[in-house]
Amino acid sequence: MSQNLIISEETISNRIYFIRNQKVMLDRDLALLYGIETKRLKEQVKRNISRFPSDFMFELSKDEFANWRTQIATSNSDKMGLRHAPMAFTEHGVLILSSVLNSDKAI
Fold it and tell me: Phi/psi class of residue 20: alpha, beta or left (left: φ > 0; alpha: ψ in -120 to 50)?
């Protein structure tokens, strides 16, 4: 994948979900957009957790995860390959996330 690849607005808007009465993006989608592994994204969040108050980022509950799965309407497996509940980032959380990630796309 080229470092100069421009991501369309439609691609991004298709990865925005409405959870807890707010628009959020999930860790796996943000990792893909930033060109890093979800595992690395979560590591950086945990190392910088004080930058992510609950109105910037939260982990999905089991019910929220189930509802999210119905929003995307795809699932061949029970957890869609996820071992841990996804982290959801609000708009402010996405901005902070880009400041703690060490990837060309995040910078």
Answer: left
Alpha carbon dihedral 97, 99, 100, 101, in 10-degree steps, equals 80
In terms of pTM, does the model score above 0.85? no
- Would you give the distance in Å from CA 16 to the centre of its chain? 9
At 4-35, the pLDDT tens digits run: 556 777 878 888 988 899 999 999 999 998 88
Residue 17: strand pairing partners:
24
Alpha-carbon 70 to chain mean position: 17
Rounded to whole angstroms, how far apart are CA atoms 87 and 57?
Answer: 7
